[in-house]
Write a structure and sequence with these properties.
The protein is mainly alpha-helical. The chain has 17 helices and five strands. The chain has a three-stranded antiparallel sheet. Strand 2 and strand 3 form a beta hairpin. The relative contact order is 0.10.
């Protein structure tokens, strides 16, 4: 969002003595110290979260007045943001989850502000035990303390982005309003400072295997020949399944097997429900369980190595599915229908359903070729039981939700495209 557009959103600062935000505090004394200012900002954020869209600008203008940001204002913004972000993390949100929610609902300024809030939250845990997922996500977001700690953050951040005090405080309120709206989630990773430093590292997929799989999938995404994409993607799935089968047998012989974990995969609009179905079939094929959230993400439960494979294969298949859908939509003989929303949704649902069937066959064939297939089947059953128990612990109440097929042509073409790609129509959602 451009700076001029942002100023139109926040509005002009009212003149002293005029009606509106300059008299916002007329019924009571304006907040003076940092704690009172923090409470005022949180109150404004609550109003904004509840639908009072003007609250952010009004309170920001009233707090800022005509002067530069004061140390009390900056400290109050820090106190408010750290209080709310702490609660959000305690409610199960991870750094990347907050970033994904922010980029769907906030502008670029608020996104950068929230990343700085995360960096500030993490600073006390620099030498404390921190879960590897937390560290990886913070690193990926580049959430670091870039500002000089000799002065408060907000003023330096506002100067960096060329924002006025009113614009800066308005952004604070808008960012806090989003955090307040975030509902409670399941705590799938330990909070910073609570991770057990003595816990052994998770069994991630061997990097050599991942590199080979990434290379195969990259070629499958880039080729314009369906048969080549099918061969490359099928090879990637076979490689991942064989590796997983060997790992399951090895883990069965260890005294401390890798326990199931969880991760989240965010989906972009449009056709989120159809994309969720694709994630679900990949999840099932790789011995995991999935649940859909109305916020637009899937939570996946499974062994750490399997979670890596699900994310890798899902990302590739979504690229392939979108490409196949667009290519199908360019067919001249059915151009109007094939560009419709109903066609494209049906295409993706059919694609996901057929991919699930093909993944299941690929797994059966790989398991059948195992040199120790008789021992493998009960080991896999025990593995699935642990995943199911972990899933049921996190999500004790779930219900199945179906998806409708609004366009027959899209369904037929989606299945055909899946046959050329590589190688259930239900997934659980929270009540």
């Amino acid at each position: 969002m451009g700076k001029q557009n942002r100023r139109r959103r926040t509005g002009r600062r009212p003149e002293t003595g005029s009606s509106g935000s300059s008299n916002f505090w007329s019924a009571q004394q304006a907040p003076a110290d940092a704690e009172q200012i923090a409470n005022a900002l949180m109150a404004a954020a609550m109003e904004s979260a509840q639908g009072a869209s003007a609250a952010a600008g009004q309170r920001a203008a009233a707090l800022a007045g005509r002067d530069p940001l004061t140390s009390q204002l900056e400290q109050g913004a820090h106190l408010a943001s750290q209080h709310i972000i702490t609660r959000v993390f305690q409610n199960g949100w991870l750094p990347e989850d907050i970033h994904q929610a922010a980029r769907r609902h906030l502008d670029e300024y608020a996104i950068t502000l929230l990343i700085d809030v995360i960096a500030s939250y993490m600073e006390p845990f620099a030498t404390a035990p921190v879960d590897e997922t937390w560290r990886a996500q913070v690193t990926e977001l580049d959430a670091v303390v870039w500002w000089s700690e000799s002065a408060p953050h907000l003023g330096q951040w506002a100067t960096k982005h060329l924002l006025t005090p009113v614009e800066a405080l308005t952004t604070v309120v808008q960012a806090l309003a989003l955090l307040i709206r975030l509902s409670r989630l399941e705590l799938i990773r330990p909070l910073p400072g609570t991770a057990q430093s003595t816990t052994s590292a998770h069994h991630h997929v061997d990097e050599k295997i991942l590199s080979r799989v990434r290379g195969l999938l990259a070629k499958a995404e880039s080729t314009s020949f369906p048969e080549e994409a099918e061969t490359l993607s099928a090879k990637a799935q076979e490689l991942m399944t064989k590796y997983a089968v060997d790992r399951v047998l090895v883990d069965a012989d260890t005294s401390v097997p890798d326990l199931p974990g969880a991760s989240r995969i965010w989906l972009d609009t449009p056709y989120v429900d159809a994309k969720a179905l694709l994630v679900d079939v990949v999840t099932k094929a790789n011995r995991c369980r999935a649940i859909f959230s109305a916020w637009g993400f899937m939570t996946i439960v499974g062994d750490e190595g399997d979670l890596e494979v699900v994310e890798l294969l899902t990302t590739s298949l979504l690229v392939q599915a979108t490409g196949a859908m667009i290519a199908s939509g360019n067919q001249a003989e059915r151009s109007a229908d094939s560009r419709s929303r109903s066609y494209r949704k049906s295409f993706l649902i059919a694609y996901a359903t057929r991919i699930g069937e093909r993944l299941a066959v690929a797994n059966e064939n790989t398991i059948a070729k195992s040199a120790d297939s008789e021992r493998l089947l009960p080991v896999l059953a025990s593995h699935q039981l642990k995943v199911d128990q972990a899933f049921d612990t996190l999500f004790p109440e779930v219900r199945n939700r179906g998806v409708s097929i609004p366009n027959a042509n899209g369904w037929d073409d989606g299945r055909a495209a899946a046959d050329n790609a590589e190688l259930g129509a239900r997934w659980p959602i929270r009540k």
